Amino acid sequence: MARLSDLSEWERDLMLIKRKDLSPLDGKPWVSGPPLRERRVAIITSAGIHRNADQPFSHQTAAEYRVIPGSVKADELVMSHLSSSFDRTGFQQDVNVVFPIDRLHELAAQQVIGSVAGYHYAFNGSTPIPQLEPRARELAGLLKKDGVDAVLLTPV
Length: 156
Known about the structure:
The protein is α/β, with parallel strands linked by helices and 156 residues long. It is built from four helices and seven strands.
């Protein structure tokens, strides 16, 4: 993970400006639920990934997402997130770096989690935070329909 001190001045300023759009969190869980071994888990990532057959993200700041089936194989995924400050080599070597679907399936097989969701979701990482709220509410409904009660967030 990059530190603010490692970034150029303009990149650092951009990151710090984004903070004003965030509400503070009090550290308390939003909801309670069953033990982890009973939970159905989905992944939501900002890695800008999608299946080969899906349309790429239209532009870096698009407030859109892609649906990724839980049965997806690593070689079916591509990343259309493009940024001069983003190193894609980790993803190219192992999709689980940004989208740990294989690890989730392993955890389900080991009965650490209850099950893997039928669908997972990917955003493009450069989307302004205020534009994401309507999509987040939309996804909450989709996750609920899928019986998901835990989400693994992988911000990229």
